[in-house]
Amino acid sequence: MPNTWRPAITRRLQRESAADPTPFRESAAIPRRLLLALAGAAFVAAPASAAPKVSTITLQQMAFGPVPAGLRVGDTIEWVNNDIFVHSATAKDKSFDLELKPKTHVRLTLKKAGAFAFYCRYHPGMMGRLVVAK
Ligand SMILES: [Cu+2]
What we know:
Elements: H1 5-19, H2 25-49, E1 54-60, E2 63-64, E3 71-72, E4 76-81, E5 87-91, E6 97-100, E7 105-109, E8 114-119, E9 127-133
Parallel strand pairs: 1-4, 3-9
Antiparallel strand pairs: 1-2, 4-7, 5-6, 5-8, 8-9
């Protein structure tokens, strides 16, 4: 057989190229979809792996700032005292008692699940509540 198939394929490719000025659009879209799928998988996998995280509670103007949500055992809280006064972060059940000198920060790793009311020993009107999941 002579080489008659080659021109036929070439003609077909030319026809398809003429019909679609961007013949690589579909093949370019596949890696993008794949990347989106991988990104989605990583996002979903993150809570399952539950890597310990560091969150911040800021003290300023004689008050504890917002307590981060979604705390888990193994996470760390960094207490940041932005005031010019000494404060403490003291658990009502005595499970922690941190001295927070002015303009310093202290880290606390959460070792127990539960709800922990806390206050400042120096200013009992300052208070908050940690909720820690297993
Ligand atoms: Cu205080």
